[in-house]
């Protein structure tokens, strides 16, 4: 695989970046009154303003040339048509099929994936409808009032985000999420639930993730104590997995299991049976709307011209900022408390997908790949880390996410929220110069002496700091689906440019293996493994002393 940095358009892009170095965003806006029209584009139910990036039309042309050199359009077709885009695991990545139409068929290795997917959604809907109507009861005949979703990573973050975002529409049983193995979430969930009226979803593609299996065992014990028989327990536990053998081994009923498939990665799996908790919470119809929204974004990604294509633009700008301009961290700031889980979901989506150091063919990658993704909701983050965004020594590109129509039932001040969003992106772009501050301070009566210089210096905001603003029409399920799918495809675009495999996650395995090896020593049942280093041994010993 040719390295990104060896492509002819990369050299041209770097030359262009140097030429642009001394031009500020403020100047770019002053020069071009049509900048917003030029650098904004519409997607399904959303508008992306990317004009506050340090780019000109030439930047965009060069980035598009780079995408062409990387064969982005044919890679995109390969993604949608089920080719093996996950080379290290020899699999396609068909999350788009999870929200695609039932026909025409989509054949992968002899199987009609579209038909399989639709049959599963039907099964999910039948179960969700019956639970929500009180027809599918617990083992003792009482209707289900609570659902506990036990899963971690992709088996947790997407559904958790979706249900928080759609909470005003939730009219089914209460849904609790349990991911961590420290027991806090599980205890909190169990404290409010009655074993006779609780359905437990054990969500794990592998059905081997230790945190999930431990939490599931605890929850099953709790059910057993409450409803007495093992058969009853099995009736109240729905496994969602690609590994039915392990379901059987745990004494659970494979007939009740809903499938996952090896052609869907965990972080892309919200749209599969992994989303059952969402469907139970808001109903099958709204879950289908979520799928429809994601599908609308899929079509936009597949069909819109690249220069007006939201995932393409976001992906190219990310490569521009992170790799060409060396900005190694990016913030995501949604202006809606309902999207509080979005930064966490995007951390997994983008950092697990593109946190890679080798190309798809195994050479060390010479381009810097995924930057650190982090964030929190506005406005609270304005009173926390925004100081560093405005005046810190690092430039951090920000994705601002706004929602035009507040979700029904909310009583907040939507306009105040939006004014804050717009103000922050404007402040990052424009900054405040020494001359402007000096004029303000002297007009307010400050003496023009040495202390004024220090007062001015402390107040200068350099500006010229890039951001995107994504404005969603509202937070209806369709919009949420489109938003999440937008970032999924952005990950794909970035990964394609960097020349890496966005669909594996081998790096996660090492820690898992070491944890299993260390567990007996941490429990005080054995010495640390022979290959444990001095630091690890010292920490195990200190931990044991305090546990005794
Ligand atoms: O669904 P599971 O098999 O339990 O996996 C849960 C999560 O853990 C893994 O370690 C991966 O890093 C994630 O991509 C995955 O979503």
Question: How does this model look, in words?
Answer:
This protein has helices at residues 8-20, 25-31, 35-38, 57-69, 72-80, 113-132, 157-165, 184-191, 210-227, 230-235, 244-249, 276-282, 284-303, 310-324, 342-354, 386-391, 414-430, 434-443, 450-459, 477-498, 507-522, 534-547, and strands spanning 40-43, 46-49, 107-108, 111-112, 146-150, 174-178, 198-203, 237-241, 258-259, 329-334, 372-375, 398-405, 467-474. It is of the alpha/beta class and 548 residues long. It has 3 domains: 4-69 and 304-430 and 465-498, Glucose-6-phosphate isomerase like protein, domain 1 (Rossmann fold); 95-288, 3-Layer(aba) Sandwich (Rossmann fold), CATH 3.40.50; 507-547, Phosphoglucose isomerase, C-terminal domain (Orthogonal Bundle). The strands form 3 sheets. Strands 1-2-13-12-10-11 form a 6-stranded mixed beta sheet, with helices on both faces. α13 runs parallel beside α20 (477-498) and α15 packs parallel to α20. Bound molecules: 6-O-phosphono-alpha-D-glucopyranose. Residues 152-155, 204-206, 209, 212, 266-267, 352, 505, 508 line the site of 6-O-phosphono-alpha-D-glucopyranose.
